[in-house]
Amino acid sequence: MVEKKDAAKKVVKKTTSCKKSTTAKPATTKKAAAKKAEVMVDAENAGFRAGDVYQTLSAAGSALSVAELAKATEKTETEVLLGIGWLLKEGKVKGEDGKVVLA
């Protein structure tokens, strides 16, 4: 039993000496956590986002900004912009004072 305790003490000493040498390295955990979600860009997804944006503008009855649309539809701003682009191409919406309104 005595030999095992001595071995455990040696391991502790080794790990503490290793910790001193590794503390000089900068932490990179924030970069991994900051990864952005990707948006699938295809005709089907754009059409669904356009429908979300159109329904939200119709229910609101007034012009909304991109941030307000993102909050109301619970989508990212990128997805909202994808839907707005679709609706602009079809002539369903127009820009008015930095906001989007039904045409």
Give a topology summary:
Elements: H1 2-22, H2 29-33, H3 43-60, H4 66-73, H5 77-90, E1 93-96, E2 99-102
Antiparallel strand pairs: 1-2
Helix pairs in contact: 3-5, 4-5
Brief characterization of the structure:
By secondary structure, the chain is mainly alpha-helical. The chain contains 5 helices and 2 strands; from the N terminus they run αααααββ. Strands 1-2 form a two-stranded antiparallel sheet.
Structure description:
The chain has helices at about 1-20, 30-35, 45-60, 65-75, 75-90; strands at about 95, 100. The protein is mainly α and about 100 residues long. A two-stranded antiparallel ribbon has the order 1-2. A hairpin with a 2-residue loop joins strand 1 and strand 2. Helix 3 (about 45-60) crosses helix 5 and helix 4 (about 65-75) packs across helix 5 (about 75-90). The chain is globular and about 30 Å long. The termini are far apart.
Note the main attributes of this structure:
103 residues; mainly alpha; two-stranded antiparallel sheet; 5 helices; 2 strands; 64% helix
* Gyration radius over CA: 27 Å
What is the 3D shape?
Answer: globular
Q: Unreliable runs, pLDDT <50, ≥5 residues? A: none
Helix content: 55-70%
Give the count of helical stretches: 5
Strand content: 5-15%
Largest sheet: number of strands, sense, barrel closure: 2 strands, antiparallel
